[in-house]
């Protein structure tokens, strides 16, 4: 099965996202990836992954990914949120995380949980 994974990171978490995605690069390269604009740009430029890029988060990217999720087009969300910095689009962020809960979609919001989710999916993909 080709997993459909959304990758999103706030600015202070983008380096963590690149490091994380780098660790799982071989697995992620076999997945269908979607990301918010700036996160996606870094994944493409720094890791060479193929990523569908939506708008940047503050311009509605979280909502676009939320819409895909509601349509059943996303299997898992890795959303490295910055809990220490207020975001202008906080309602959009909450809407995406809420949509994950409504639709029982795995949503990892920190690096430790992202490792658990990605390692599990990677293992499932190998079996
Ligand atoms: O703001 C974001 C998620 O809420 C992320 O957007 P960018 O990837 O465009 O920085």
From TrEMBL:
GO cellular component, one term: cytosol
SMART domains: MGS
Keyword terms, alphabetized: Lyase
Catalytic activity, EC: 4.2.3.3
Pfam family, one: MGS
Gene3D superfamilies: Methylglyoxal synthase-like domain
Coiled-coil regions listed in the entry: none
Residues that coordinate or bind substrate: 10, 14, 36-39, 56-57, 89
Record-linked PROSITE patterns: MGS
Database matches in InterPro entries: Methylgl_synth (IPR004363), MGS-like_dom (IPR011607), MGS-like_dom_sf (IPR036914)
One GO term of the biological process aspect: methylglyoxal biosynthetic process
Active site: 62
Lyase as UniProt keyword: yes
GO molecular function: methylglyoxal synthase activity
Keyword Transferase belongs to the record: no
Catalytic activity: dihydroxyacetone phosphate = methylglyoxal + phosphate
Domain MGS-like: 1-127
Record family assignment: Belongs to the methylglyoxal synthase family.
Xref: NCBIfam families: MGSA, PRK05234.1
Role, per record: Catalyzes the formation of methylglyoxal from dihydroxyacetone phosphate.
Name of protein: Methylglyoxal synthase
Organism from which the protein derives: Duganella callida
């Amino acid at each position: 099965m080709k997993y459909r994974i959304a990758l999103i990171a706030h600015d202070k978490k983008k380096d963590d996202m690149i490091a994380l995605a780098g660790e799982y690069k071989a697995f992620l390269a076999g997945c269908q990836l979607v990301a918010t604009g700036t996160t996606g740009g870094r994944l493409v430029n720094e890791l060479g992954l193929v990523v569908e890029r939506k708008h940047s988060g503050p311009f509605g990217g979280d909502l676009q990914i939320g819409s895909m999720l509601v349509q059943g087009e996303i299997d898992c969300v890795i959303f490295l949120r910055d809990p220490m910095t207020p975001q202008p689009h906080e309602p959009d962020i909450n809407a995406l995380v809420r949509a994950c809960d409504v639709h029982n979609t795995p949503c990892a919001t920190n690096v430790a949980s992202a490792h658990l989710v990605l390692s599990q999916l990677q293992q499932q993909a190998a079996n």
